[in-house]
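Researcher: Let's do a round of design. I'm pasting the structure tokens now; please hold your answer until I've finished.
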């Protein structure tokens, strides 16, 4: 009889879902509610309204939480817990970066740096009654995941192309607010798929900090790359030459063009920029140099500093032409990392000033972990055939 009753109830529920506007989304919403209820009961040691000596806390209402899924957007009623807090397991597994953002806000409160902006952000995330012990417990799991990701062995070893850049945010350090860099290295493996290889916080970009970054990468298993793409920071370029002798360096054409255009008067900027871009719209080195010379001849009197900058850095900005099999759009600039940094800043902008370096590094790392997971299931960034041509050139 009990089995027949359960079957009847299930049939009734299915008919109810089928009559709704979006049956599959409503079924998923119901399932998420049931899983949250089971998880919260297990966490506090008691069912709803149950009297139990094993109870460790109490429910105290709900908070609305948006969850985007492949079926659509749901607004879950997530149970609140009086002591300890609660985040559904299916949210934390797929949204580590949001959990990290929550913990940044928590640490800001604990360290006494709360602002009106932080209050607003905290309320939107459903954060109430923060204590130092709660912060310590909740950050432990993410810290372990972030550290494991940042220090994992690079089993592929060979990453033929690397992109290197730095991301800056304001951080409280030593009792004052400073601008702190996170140095990022991404690469493609021999299959052409992108990976986030290094995430290191540094107080400044320098030859020594980049040297430490590259040496650590080699200790984790990185072999010498064929091509490294970056801007022309002197410390970075020096570290590349010292740590990867024989590797080619491509100066990011976008950064290079910006460096040139700052020396061009406003009224000439549009025309000059059009001619400047034409230098890189070719796969032939001689054509590129000829276009650069034509530009220099036209503007050496009007914009001498711009032409001087162009002539000094042109060879390094055309290195990619020595690798004709590679996709020039992807290896001639740092645009891939620029887009990545832009996405990261969308998250960090909500924080403003990070309460400490650890929270800054953790949030960036867990966001990049999600990005790296997406890359692993998407198609190759550079073709495997084009990367094999690098081995032939080396031979």
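Researcher: That's everything. Go ahead.
Model: Designed sequence:
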């Amino acid at each position: 009889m009990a089995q027949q009753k359960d079957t009847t109830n299930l049939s009734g529920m299915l008919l109810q879902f089928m009559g709704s506007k979006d049956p599959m989304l409503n079924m998923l919403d119901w399932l998420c509610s049931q899983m949250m209820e089971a998880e919260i009961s297990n966490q506090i040691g008691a069912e709803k309204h149950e009297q139990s000596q094993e109870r460790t806390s109490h429910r105290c209402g709900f908070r609305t939480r948006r969850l985007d899924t492949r079926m659509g957007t749901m607004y879950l009623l997530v149970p609140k817990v009086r002591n300890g807090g609660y985040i559904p397991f299916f949210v934390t597994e797929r949204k580590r970066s949001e959990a990290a953002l929550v913990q940044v806000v928590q640490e800001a409160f604990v360290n006494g740096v709360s602002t009106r902006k932080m209050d607003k952000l905290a309320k939107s995330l459903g954060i109430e009654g923060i204590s130092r012990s709660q912060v310590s417990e909740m950050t432990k799991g993410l810290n372990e995941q972030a550290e494991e990701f940042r220090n994992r062995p690079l089993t592929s070893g060979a990453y033929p192309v690397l992109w290197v850049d730095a991301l800056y945010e304001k951080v409280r350090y030593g009792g004052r607010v400073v601008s702190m860099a996170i140095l990022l290295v991404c690469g493609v493996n021999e299959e052409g798929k992108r990976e986030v290889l290094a995430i290191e916080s540094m107080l400044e970009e320098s030859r020594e900090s980049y040297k430490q970054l590259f040496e650590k990468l080699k200790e984790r298993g990185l072999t010498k790359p064929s091509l490294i793409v970056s801007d022309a920071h002197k410390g970075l370029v020096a570290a590349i030459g010292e740590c990867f002798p024989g590797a080619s360096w491509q100066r990011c054409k976008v950064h290079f063009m910006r460096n040139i255009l700052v020396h061009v008067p406003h009224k000439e900027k549009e025309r000059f920029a059009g001619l400047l871009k034409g230098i890189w719209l070719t796969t032939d080195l001689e054509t590129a140099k000829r276009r650069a010379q034509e530009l220099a001849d036209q503007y050496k009197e009007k914009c001498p500093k711009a032409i001087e900058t162009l002539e000094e850095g042109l060879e390094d900005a055309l290195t990619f032409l020595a690798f004709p099999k590679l996709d020039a759009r992807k290896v001639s600039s740092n645009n891939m990392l620029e887009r990545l940094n832009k996405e990261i800043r969308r998250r960090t902008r909500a924080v403003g000033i990070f309460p400490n370096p650890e929270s800054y590094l953790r949030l960036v790392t867990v966001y990049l972990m999600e990005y790296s997971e997406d890359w692993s299931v998407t198609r190759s960034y550079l073709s495997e055939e084009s990367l094999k041509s690098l081995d032939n050139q080396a031979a």
